[in-house]
Amino acid sequence: MWNELVDAGLEPKDAKFYLAVLTMDAPTVAQAAEAAEVSRTNAYDIAKRLAHKGMLSLIESGPAVPGGGGGRGRTVLRAADPQYLLDDWNQRRQVLERLVPQLRAMHAKGGAAPRSRYLEGAVGIRTALFETLDWPSPLRGVLSMRDLMTVPGAAAMRDYIAGRRERRLWLHVVRSPGKDYPHGWPSSDEDFRRTRYAPDGYIFTMTMIIGRDAVAMLSSKQENFALIIESSEYAEMQGNLFDVLWSASNTDPIAPA
């Protein structure tokens, strides 16, 4: 079993020592060292390390010799409930879930040169789309709705909308009536969406989602790729162009001629 603990992140000697204490009744460091087959010197370091992680407790048990009066007590070890390992992992995971988006934002700004990533196929399109859920609100988008309903598909789009709703992530979107569905994805406070429709004659065959520091472009099924450009300047330029398009667009769809 110790090898599974090693896979979970413990050093091999630490894993053996923890298992020895777990299966013994309040052993001393020396007793646990013998059971774990490590030297007594190493055992003290291991015990302190595991105690620091919260996996062991070091307890003063009283005089080493019964009736010894003021004699020095001895230290025994008690293993924490193994449930602690799962609770600790869940706690660290929650911290990382809050931290990783901030670190990614810093990473995107950290380099002097912009970064671009090409993602191929339907899987790449879905990956790029769902990555935008980690971007700050609001997003701005130019959507080709019929193409999105083909790739990544209706189920993925429902999941994406649910993801935005869960994160309270607003999307300001312009769509072309010629690529739209009747009654599809109108403005909705519940879905955190503001929708406008491009002037007649403008047809979008790709989808573009603009964040604060990055832009994601999703092709139709015909070319079947996604491209993410991480650049604050590029995102700002595309955001400005979007604002011009937004101001020229209509709040109600105009049926194509």
TrEMBL record:
Q: Where is the Transcription regulator TrmB N-terminal domain?
A: 8-64
Indicate what this protein is called per its UniProt record.
Putative transcriptional regulator
Q: Check the record and name the InterPro entries matching this protein.
A: Tscrpt_reg_TrmB_N, WH-like_DNA-bd_sf
